[in-house]
Amino acid sequence: MDGVLMDTNLLQGYTCAKKFQIGNNHYLLLNRCYAEKIWILKIQNDGKIADIIGELDFIPCMDTVEIYTINKITYLLCTNILYPKIYIYKIYVDKKPELVDESTMKYISECLQIYQIGNKHYLFRFTTNEGMMIHRITNDGKLGDIICDITKWSSYNRWTITEIYTINNITYLFCHCHYSGYVNIYKVNEDGKIGDLIEDRYWSKGWTNIKPFQIGNKHYIFLYKIKGGNVDIDQIKNDGKLGKNLFNTNSFNKEWLTTEIYTVNNVTYLLLLNQDSGKLKIHKIQ
């Protein structure tokens, strides 16, 4: 991981940073949990963040965010920290998002992942009380029917982080609990349902940010502990399982609530954001 590419200060309070793409242009969405706005920033060709190009009215208390594209239309799916609701919006860079779907769940979702198998899209949703559910995403971006519903899904049943990655056209679901330190990795079947457990292992406890990423044809996973400032980068093998550790340090600051990894022009970047101070740093990964 290279040195710091960008070191700047934004306003305080941003709790979410998500990269997305419309056409050939790359953007960063920022949100403050209790603000009734979202902010859109342009990502330059060198990976740096440019000025805010959109300050758009939005719902307050937005929590988990997933951004996906179907039929060249970009959607934002988000939850609410106060109510068990899921909202889906069409998202634009220059005008207010357009609400297209609103659904009420039984419990607030703790982990969400949007993923694609072939030309079909799915939502993985996990709560400690309900277990795991998978919804179809319809071609107009809305939440469809439930295709999988497993109350007692795993022996741990308290996942705090889930991630999706695809290797050699096979999609995998990565699950981690920072309380117990356990990791499970599952294959995702061609019908969108969660398939076989391929890895069950113990990691150390306390990882708060986990992001898989790809450079060329190699796959990796980034891990960060906000409590200790620890960073690891591990290999992901071609069979979807975790490989050897490639990088580790405990010299990162103990301040990064939000992390995001994105690629522009075949170069991969790590973005770090501090909610309290508004500090933003970007590293190039290679």
The total of beta strands comes to: 24
Strand content: over 45%
Helical content (DSSP H or I, runs of 4+): under 10%
Summed up, the helix count is: 0
Number of domains: 1
CATH topology: Methylamine Dehydrogenase, Chain H
Secondary-structure class: mainly beta
Shape: globular
The CATH H-level homologous superfamily: YVTN repeat-like/Quinoprotein amine dehydrogenase
| Topology pattern, helix = H, strand = E | EEEEEEEEEEEEEEEEEEEEEEEE
- Physical arrangement of strands within the biggest beta sheet: 1-24-23-22
Under the CATH scheme, the architecture is 7 Propeller
Quick recap of the structure?
This protein is mainly beta and 286 residues long. The chain has no helices and 24 strands. It has a four-stranded antiparallel β-sheet with strand order 1-24-23-22, with no helix packed on it. A four-stranded antiparallel β-sheet has the order 2-3-4-5, with no helix packed on it.
Topology summary:
Blueprint: E1 4-9, E2 14-22, E3 25-32, E4 37-43, E5 49-57, E6 62-70, E7 73-80, E8 85-90, E9 98-104, E10 111-117, E11 120-127, E12 131-137, E13 143-150, E14 161-167, E15 170-176, E16 182-188, E17 194-202, E18 209-215, E19 218-225, E20 230-236, E21 242-249, E22 258-264, E23 267-273, E24 279-285
Antiparallel strand pairs: 1-24, 2-3, 3-4, 4-5, 6-7, 7-8, 8-9, 10-11, 11-12, 12-13, 14-15, 15-16, 16-17, 18-19, 19-20, 20-21, 22-23, 23-24
